[in-house]
Amino acid sequence: MSGERSVRTAGERRPYDQGPVPVLMYHSIGGSDRLAVRPEAFADQMAYLKDNGFTPLPFSGRARPAERPVVITFDDGYADFHEHALPVLDRYGFAATVFVTTGWLRDAGPCAAGRPLGRMLSWRQTEEIAATGVEIGAHSHSHAQLDQLAAPALAEELRRSRGLLEERLGRRIAAMAYPYGYSSARVRREVRACGYTAACAVANAVMDDRHDPFAVPRLTVRAATSLHGFDRALDGRGFGTDHVLTKGYAVLRRSRYAARRLRGVA
């Protein structure tokens, strides 16, 4: 899972090699669940970054060094990103990365897969977002628990999402984010084999040179995150319970997958 480390191969590196970088993880901007951030709160958080000298960078870019770099990411591909987040990012000239679940797109048609959790982006909106300079990454095709899939299904989830995005957007898709944050050494090997150069987990820690580029930790911004909590999150503080739960759940999921293999399910 996201807490595991693995040895990098020659030439591999994190998305940024310029010291610790907080990578923020958002979901819906305007929804009603515990991970959905109110548009007003999101605007306040972006103003905080601007006022405090942060420079938002795209996740997979090899950008110029920045004194206070930060990466802003969004999972799943909710339609309210286009409505509420994009105008704020554009106002400040902020870079961001949106990880899209291709089977959840509103007009996915015969490629529809999985069960969307809300109102999702359309292909046209995804194209419009990409045209503004926002990076688009993959978030699998059906939002499956990748670490529980057998090899053929895992490869299909990773390759199909990347292929659909590249075909429709006409650009290389270099990064992906694990649905639910779940991964394993086996999943990360397949992500690398599918041609991605980096991948996001969760872990609620600040990215630094200890971290596997295929398990980059992110900091969860929730509905309940106050501006004071946002400030603490940028330093990776306030996530003690999350760290303990993440490590314990990683062991549980590995055991679960091993049991499925013994039963011949995976």
Automatic annotation (TrEMBL):
GO cellular component: extracellular region
Cell compartments where the protein resides: Secreted
Domain NodB homology: 68-266
Origin superkingdom: Bacteria
Keywords assigned by UniProt, alphabetized: Signal
Gene Ontology MF term list: hydrolase activity, acting on carbon-nitrogen (but not peptide) bonds
Keyword Signal (UniProt): yes
Listed Pfam families: Polysacc_deac_1 (PF01522)
Full protein name: Peptidoglycan/xylan/chitin deacetylase (PgdA/CDA1 family)
